[in-house]
Every structure is written in C-alpha cells, then in structure tokens.
Amino acid sequence: MQKIKTQIAEELKKQIDLINPDTGLDAEAVSLMMEYPPDKTLGDLALPCFKLSRSLRRSPVQIATQLAEGLSCDAIAECKAVNGYLNIFISNDFLSAKVVSEILAKGDDYGKNDVGEGRTVVLDYSSPNVAKPFHLGHLGTTVIGHSLRRLFEFAGYKCIGVNHLGDWGTSFGKQIVALKTWGDTTKIEENGVDGLVTLYQKFHEEAEARPELFDEARAEFTKLENGDPENTELWKRCIAVSIAEYQKTYAQLDIEFDYYTGESFYTDKMPAQVERMREKGLLKLDDGASIVDLADYNMPPCLILKRDGSTLYPTRDISAAVYRHDTFDFDRCVYVTSAGQSLHFAQWFKVVELMGYDWANKLVHVPYGTMSIGGAKLGTRSGNVVWLKQLLNMSIDKVRDVINEKNPDLPNKEQVAEEVGVGAIVFNYLLNSRIKDISFDLEAALDFNGNTGPYVQYTYARCCSILEKATAIPESVELSLTEESESALVKTLSRFPEKVNDALSQYEPSVITRYILDVASAFNRFYHDCQILSADDEKIRNTRILLTKATKTVLGNAFGLICLKKPEKI
Ligand code: ARG
Question: What integer is the mean pLDDT of 356-374?
Fold first, then answer.
C-alpha cells in the first residue's frame, strides 16, 4: 500500500502543479498529507484538502473538486470530492496484480521478513525421557516446537533446536538394575527401546514385593554418577538406542535438531551455579535439602539439591540456561512443554532472575494442553500410554487403504501415504490453540472432506494438477478479475505475511493452520465458481492460472511452517 500511496502522491503533485506551480511541495510532502480513511465507503486513501488551501489560495471544496476531475492513473478506480476531502478508491485489479506479482516474484520467500536478522533463538522442544516410550504426550512439544522453529526462521532469526533429553536421574539406576538382573546386556541394541521399556516395567513390578530394589537402584545410580565404567557404558548404550528410535519418528515428521544435549550434559556445569546461588544468599536448608524460597512471589520453593546433595530437574534447567546464554547469546530461549510444567518454569525463571542474570526475561515458556484419544481405538501398552509411532503408523495404514481403493495407480504410493498419514495428525494437532485440551479422533483427522490435513494437501495437489495441465504459464501479471471469488482469494492470499507475524507474536502455530484452511476454502470456492483452463477469454484464463500458481505458493510456504509435506499428487 505504501508503494501505491507514493505513486498516487506523484500523480497528485502533477495536478497540484497545474493549479499553482509554485507551491514548493514535492511528492513526499503530498504523501504525508494523505490519510487512510476509517471507513471503506470513503475510499482507500484520502487527501484532506484544507491542508492545501493556503498554498493554492482556494477553498478545500474547490481543490477537492478540481483534483477529482484531473487525477487519473492505472492504480485508481475512482476519485470523489466529498466535503473538502478527495477520496480515492484503488483499483481492485491493480491491487490484486500487486499481490499476485509479489507472491510469484518472491516464491518460497513470500511471507518471510527480517525482523530477526542478527538474532538467535534457542528452542528447547520434544525432549523425551530416554528409555521410556516416546508417547502421545510428546507430540505437542515436538510439533509445536518445530513449527515455532520454522516460524522464527521465516522471520529471519537464527534458530538452534535443542533436544533436552531426560537422560539423567535415578530412573537410570532402576534401568541398570533391571538390565543386569533380568536383561541381556548383549542385546540392548537388538531389543531397542521396547526392550528397555519392558525391563523398566519389570523393575516396578518386582519392586512392589521387594522394595530393597529401590536401594539397589540408588546405589547403581551413584556408581554411574561417580563414573563407574560398566554403568557408564550401559547408560550410553541406552541413550544411543533411544535416540536412534526417536530419529525414525523425527524423520517422518521432517524434524532435525542441532543438539541432543540432554540433562546429563550439564552435570559438570551445575556446581558453579549452585555456588552462585549460595553467594547471592538464595539457598536455604529445608530438612537437609537446599531450596530457594519463593514465598514472596507466591510460589512454592524451588528445589535445588536433595538431602544427599544430588541435583534436581530445576538445577539442571538453570545450568542449561546459563550455558545456552553464554554459548549462543540468545535473544530468546523458548521452552515448549505441557502446561503441567508451568509452575516448574515459573519457579526456576524466577531463580535465574534472583541470581542476578539480567537476561532472565529472555526465557519464555510456551505451554500446551493435554491430548486424549477419542473415537479410534489404539493399541495401548502399560495402561494408557499410547506410543506416538503406533499412532503415526495407524494413520499411514489408513491412508494407504484409501489410496489403494481410490487411486491404485498413483506413483510413489508409499511415500504419499506417509506424507498424508503423518500430515493428518500434525495438522489436526496444530489446528487448536495450543493451550486447549483436545480429544483426538483419528477418523475425523483423516476425513478428506473435513477441516483436515488430507483436505488441504488435496487442495495443494489440485493446484499442482491444474498447473501441470496448463499449456503455458503467463509471463506478465496483468489480471482481469471478473468473479467475486477471485478477489476474495487474492485478499486471503495477501494476508499471509501478517499471519506469520501473528503466529510468532503469540507463539501459536494454529494461526497458520487456520489460515491454511481459509486459503483452501477460498481456493475451492474459486475453483467451483470459475472455469480455469477452459475459460474462453485469454486474459481471464491467464488470470486464473496465475491465481492458482499464487495459491500453490502460499499454501506450500504455509505448509512448511507447520511441518506439513507437499505431495503433488494424491
Ligand atoms: N524431559 C521432559 C519431559 O519429558 C521435558 C523437558 C523439557 N525441557 C526442559 N528444559 N525442561 O517431561
């Protein structure tokens, strides 16, 4: 709009010069006089002509009338003189051509901005607990976290994705006891995470009758903490097996991390931070444990050291934040976890502030609600835990069935089934405001006619197929819009950049997911109302082909922001 305003200001200046060539006003001064009317019926731009009365020595009403008669250019549809105001209506075709040519010129870059240039954001997400199932509860942090990463990158930030694996703590003592007692340590890799989980469950079953197993576990963990070579080797192998398994799921979701630095990475970095807390007089003894009292801030105390001196989850988070700040000099460090951990983050963020770190306000917690399974029945193990990989595979299987039934000759069937099956789950998840608790229904998520991943991916494939069939894609963007659904589509497409900003400022990928639905429905309405390739008039046909191409670009860019793949044929 700014560019159009400048162009119109130049035209206005020519008209003003015709009335009086000696006003000394240049186009920029005229542009500064113009306003955006509060009400669309008053035009898209207006010039309050009283601002010119003195230099033109005429009444505002006269000036407005004279300018309205003289002013014309391709950007202007109509000018009206109303009560001393010159109201200017911008041509719809002109505006649309601007939007469409910008989309086509920028392509993959359309919607990007550079507010984050020169700034770094650290994103801590996914972060499952090693040797435990990567379950549905981790879907939120994984896909919200990665989507935020893509959004920050889109806004020009340098992003560092950290997987803060839960790879330390007494549970490893239990795992080691279980491995040594009932497991086969030569088969850790062969049996994978499933094997580790089974052993871990066995530990808890056995420990019910033999509570002394807990002491054994503590002893094994202490050995690990003291660097015992055998335990260290077992622990390392459990981690390697777990990461290899998680990476299969990450690959399906198209996710990568820069670092897999889990909690254990901070072991040697904690003493310095505990010392700093002590120096600042923050540590208090409470029944032998060291805590930071947060009563003044209406929060329970933050636990720093247990009675035996061992560290805790907050201690590790505090040390990790300091390390990340010193290493990456972040502009923000964002943590995506379930809302159940909100208090934990509020507590240790406060401790970091009390420790005197002036960057404490750069720590951001992004919480999300819980997800339960409705509708579809899922195989469960150990009570109600649903493994993410099971859910993804079940979705892929169902899409494969649909493809085999409806489009059996589709090339790359397996790849498409995976892209659509995984996409259905991601899309469904990211459709809701993150803080809402949701009940997941696989059938609904897979409905090609609903507000789903398959529906929007199908719309994208529809654009691809139209463009593939078009004999020539027009070079120049000269539009001829004849239907309301065409203008509505262009308007929707033009909103993408502002949606990117909204999503980022609210840490809310659902803004993009809902926007994708808006684009898909605007496109499908246009597709329903307008003949595209079979339109007789060449200019109209070309306009529609370009609108299809612009839609494909915007959908594709938006898909990238929510980790949705772009199959060209379904
Ligand atoms: N491992 C934790 C869990 O599964 C999540 C870790 C989140 N990140 C952090 N820096 N605390 O609940």
Answer: 92
Strands (E), 481-541: none
Q: What is the pLDDT of residue 460?
A: 98
Separation in Å, CA 159 to CA 122, 142, 195, 314, 332: 6, 15, 35, 24, 10
3-state secondary structure (DSSP) of residue 291: strand
Query: Span 102-106, mean pLDDT?
Result: 96
Torsion, Cα of 507, 509, 512, 517 (10° steps)? -140
**Contact 256/153 with Cβ under 8 angstroms?**
no
Q: Report the separation in Å between the CA atom of 103 and the middle of ligand 1, taken as the mean of its atom positions.
A: 39
The label of the residue with tokens 């920050």 reads 152
Query: Mutation test of ligand 1: which of 123, 126, 127 has the most ligand atoms closer than 8 Å to its C-beta?
Result: 127
- Tokens found for residue 84: 């001393």
What is the DSSP track for 422-433? Answer: HHHHHHHHHTS-
pLDDT at residue 163 above 90? yes
Q: How far is CA 417 from CA 329, 389, 394, 395, 517, in A?
A: 42, 15, 11, 9, 21
Contacts of 248 (CB under 8 A, 6+ apart): 389
186 three-class SS:
helix
Task: Give yes or no for residue 261 CB within 6 A of ligand 1.
Answer: no
Q: Ligand 1, residues 164, 311, 366: which to mutate, most atoms within 8 A of Cβ?
A: 164
Structural tokens at position 272: 């310095």
Retrieve residue 241's tokens: 């097996």
Q: Per this entry, what is the length of the chain? A: 570
Mean pLDDT across 440-444: 88
- Whole-angstrom CA distances from 229 to 179, 190, 223 are 15, 22, 9
Mean pLDDT, residues 467-488 taken together = 92
| Ligand 1 atom at shortest distance from the alpha carbon of 320 | 10
* Complete DSSP assignment for 94-115: HHHHHHHHHHHHHGGGTT---T
Distance CA 503, CA 495 (A): 12
Question: At 257, is the secondary structure helix, strand, or coil?
Answer: coil
Distance CA 475, CA 473 (A): 6
Q: Which residues pair with 286 in a beta bridge?
A: 289
Q: CA distances (Å), 485 to each of 275, 412, 489, 526, 547, in order?
A: 66, 34, 6, 5, 11
Work out which ligand 1 atom sits closest to the CA atom of 345: 11
- Rounded distance, CA 8 to CA 86, Å? 12
- Confidence class for position 187, pLDDT limits 50, 70, 90: very high
3-state secondary structure of 199: helix
The SS3 call for residue 346 is helix
317 within ligand 1 shell (Cβ under 6 A) = yes
Is 128 close to ligand 1, i.e. is its CB under 6 Å away?
yes
341 alpha carbon – ligand 1 mean position (Å): 9
Give the model confidence (pLDDT) of 36-68 as tens digits.
998 889 999 999 999 999 999 999 999 999 999
Q: Whose CA is nearest to atom 8 of ligand 1?
A: 164
The Cα 147–Cα 431 span in angstroms is: 12
Q: Where are the beta strands (DSSP E) in 176-235?
A: none
| Residue pair 520/564 in contact by the 8 Å Cβ criterion | no
Band (371; pLDDT cuts 50, 70, 90): confident
